[in-house]
Amino acid sequence: MKGKFKKGWYKLGSKETVKRHRLLIEKLEKIKRLSETSDFNFIEKGKGKIGIITSGIAYEYVKEAMDELNIKLPLLKLGFTFPFPSEKVKKFLRNLKEVIIVEELDPIIEEEVRKINCKIKIYGKDFFPFFDELKPEIVALGIAKILKKPLPKELKENLRFKVEKRLPFFCPGCPYRSVFYAVKTVLGKQKIFAGDIGCYMLGAFKPYEMQDFIVCMGASLGISHGIAKTTNQKPVIFVGDSTFLHAGIPALINMTYNKADVLLIVLDNGVTAMTGHQPHPGTGFNALHEETKKIEIEEIAKACKADFVKVTNSFNFNQLCKDIEEAYSKKGVSVLIAKGQCRLFTIRELARKGISWPKFEIVKQKPELEKLKEFGCPAIKKENGKWVIDENLCSGCSVCKQLFPDCIRRK
């Protein structure tokens, strides 16, 4: 069933704005009364004159911490925090002398509690961090310090245990890997590289280290435009297909209009991969998986009057390098669309059809294979001094074989 737009409801002018502001205040007052009685805000009984107020995921961490410390303090869980349920909080604080407030990031609840009762002793951000995510052990450690209780042996061991750190990386066979490696091969690492929002953000990490700034969706184009106009440097811009369609087109128009000198590489993997393979105007199907008109990025670039537009294949490494060199050499706004389907998407489709994909193996060891470190495919690793390809991870993109044709072959 579809709705219907009713004409006549919208009125313009300062008088109407004041009226709507008054209605908003009245609405908030009604919502506040609702927050005071909401089941999302509840009290769990406990013992003692010290209570805990918490919200969100921190509630689970508090419960876990109390179990580990073998305590049961009065607990107020706030799930409906705006407008703030001040009467509910007053009731909770009535029989307490001290209160511990556990919340992530800024002390929102803590400040509201201070407004309600400035005399009660409050433990908050002086024991829990302002930044990063809370973790169960951080909450347990903070509560233990406040209560001056010793930590259980098992918890102490957990705090000493260090998880090995590793950088995030592109999936095996990701089309973005070959583009970053090709750009580094052709242009080196000393150019200005602009990044944007998408899987290709991983190009900022080793072994590529080829994104000098990442701000927000579409900002790569605008910032690079400014750099190109105020320096003698020519930026290389990396932007994904969905980000380009979402926020890059106005900036591209602005660059062509103002005669910027940049290379824009649109990484077109055919889907919004980073957040779960959602469709976008370039996929050819909509959110309901209905077939629809497919917007071709190269046609948009031409319509925006880019000085040079070319489509290249992310998985054809030699041609990709030639196209990057050609595009960068052109004066003005060059747009290179590097097409290569997200490999996860490809493998999923092949698996659904019962079709297997190729696997590759290393058959000859040579010193130049050390360059595979810079290529950075997680399916390729060194074992006992020899380079090997893990066939369970190999997605059959074939780029490694193109790089070392006499050392790598299809199985």
Oligomer: single chain
Q: Which value, in Å, is the CA radius of gyration?
A: 29 Å
CATH superfamily of the largest domain: Thiamin diphosphate (ThDP)-binding fold, Pyr/PP domains
Helix vs. strand class: alpha/beta
Give, in spatial order, the strands making up the sheet with the most strands.
1-3-2-4-5
Within the CATH hierarchy, at the fold level, what is the topology of the largest domain? Rossmann fold
The percent of residues in helical segments reads 25-40%
Query: CATH class of the largest domain, please?
Result: Alpha Beta
Please report the number of helical segments: 14
Mean pLDDT: 92
Shape: globular
Unreliable residue stretches = none
Q: How many individual domains?
A: 3
What is the CA-CA span between the terminal residues?
55 Å
How would you sum up this structure, described in words?
The chain is an alpha/beta fold. It folds into three domains: 36-160, Rossmann fold, CATH 3.40.50.920; 175-348, Rossmann fold, CATH 3.40.50; 358-410, Alpha-Beta Plaits (2-Layer Sandwich), CATH 3.30.70. It has 14 helices and 14 strands. The strands form four sheets. The protein has a five-stranded mixed β-sheet with strand order 1-3-2-4-5, with helices on both faces. Strand 4 (98-102), helix 4 and strand 5 form a beta-alpha-beta unit. Helix 7 crosses helix 11 (317-329). It starts with 13 loop residues before the first helix and ends with a strand.
